[in-house]
Amino acid sequence: MKINEITKILESWAPLTYAEDFDNVGLLVGDLNSECSKALVTLDTTEEIVEEAIREGCELIISFHPIIFSGLKKLTGKTYVERAVIMAIKNDIAIYSIHTALDNHKNGVSHEMGVQLGLKNQRILIPKTNTLRKLTTYVPSVSVSKVLEALHSAGAGAIGNYYDCSFSTKGIGTFTGNDISKPNTGKPGKPERTEELQLHLTFDQNKEMDIIKALKEVHPYEEVAYEICELSNINQDIGMGSIGELEKSMDEIAFFDYIKKHLNTPHIRHSNYLGREIKKVALLGGSGSFAIKAAKSNGADVLITADLKYHNFFEAENKIILMDIGHYETEQYTKKIIATYLTKKIPNFACILSQQSTNPVNYS
Q: In terms of CB atoms within 10 Å, which of 188, 249, 314, 351 comes out highest?
């Protein structure tokens, strides 16, 4: 199959429109129209990973972190980034990065940490805003069922745990077609009045093109009147981090041992113990100092993340325990999430997990 067929499947799951503005996601190296029979899934793309892809006969590397983050002005092989990119190009290996598009998925990086810890009632810690849209259109009463069915199939009207949602208002539509018009009812040049329903449906922004296409395909009118507006509402299905509860409260010391065992982390940097049991746990894979405020406001007993700086630990203010377990450690399950999804969606496609640890940090 072609690489663009694989990326479309990935982007229907983790749309690139939900990646953070600072990020560099999507196809970074290669041609979308190239054929691909096997892909290697990894957390990072390094020279060693490209060599592994060559050995395994892979034409595509699907990497969580982007190997090219800021712009490359030259390719001379002086840095590990340049060497990895050059090696990939020489061997016709494409590189795709998913990064914060998956970070913002409700069942993404942070959620998987919660699964490993057995957390219950997980929800997004920092839901995104301005990712929802509302479609308003006007449909003759006799065609409403057909139009709604098409819009729902395209993804409109899904709100949290509910689907096929809409709101309608009855009214009278008026129009007059010109000499070359082909009105569904009435005749050109004659004013027409018809009973219509005004339909309102919300949808995720990444589905806008499919929804408009579906609307125009099934709407009976020659000219389809519709409006789309951006909603500032939070999107409970898109956002950073996760928060959930342990099955049973746990002593602080026992909880630290539990984290080391279940998240396979040898060392933990943390703020002061608070002398109370742990029940509600906030998680954010990767660099997560920006989640401290949200974790506290959501009543979390602990925030598990990475890359906290010295002064970040003061922000705990004896209200929460901040735990830095390491960047790699918070994202170690990511490649398995990606590979599992692709294997389920494309059972006959060869998708393999990299056998290498790309963690650049060592502990002594």
A: 351
